[in-house]
Design goal:
The protein is of the alpha/beta class. The protein is 32% helix and 19% strand. It has a 5-stranded parallel beta sheet with strand order 3-2-1-4-5, sandwiched between helices. The longest helix has 12 residues.
Length: 130
């Protein structure tokens, strides 16, 4: 069964002070592109392939479109609330991993049965620099 990997774009992008705040949409697009390889490879030690990869964007990054291997979901309000909704609706019996450092969000998704890991799991691993 395909695992579900949900990435909190704002949290992951914001985890490195590389000027992302000057171009939030561009930063989210670079993250999306860097994540695409994980759909086929999974995250070693965390989630095995096949993986459905979902990137949740909010605010100025809402216009980012999906790309091969990465479904982009735009939150109409809070990105955290949208991630919790995705976990509740789409995880079901499959393995579900949420990438975020947000403590409150971690607690909310763990209460629904998802596993969590921090931004380092996807930053600088695999296909490119996220």
């Amino acid at each position: 069964m395909e695992s579900l990997l949900i990435v909190d774009a704002a949290n992951v992008v914001g985890s490195v002070p590389d000027g992302w705040w000057r171009d939030r949409r561009g930063a989210a697009e670079r993250l999306r592109d860097a994540l695409s390889g994980y759909a086929g490879t999974g995250l070693p030690g965390l989630v095995a392939p096949p993986v459905e990869l979902v990137l949740v964007v909010e605010g100025a990054a809402r216009g980012v479109e999906s790309a091969e291997g990465v479904r982009v979901v735009a939150a109409s309000g809070s990105g955290d609330d949208r991630i919790v909704q995705l976990v509740a609706e789409e995880c079901g019996d499959r393995d579900c991993l949420v990438v975020t450092a947000d403590r409150e969000l971690r607690a909310r998704v763990q209460a629904l049965g998802a596993r969590v890991t921090g931004p380092r799991a996807v930053r600088g691993r695999g296909r490119g620099e996220a």
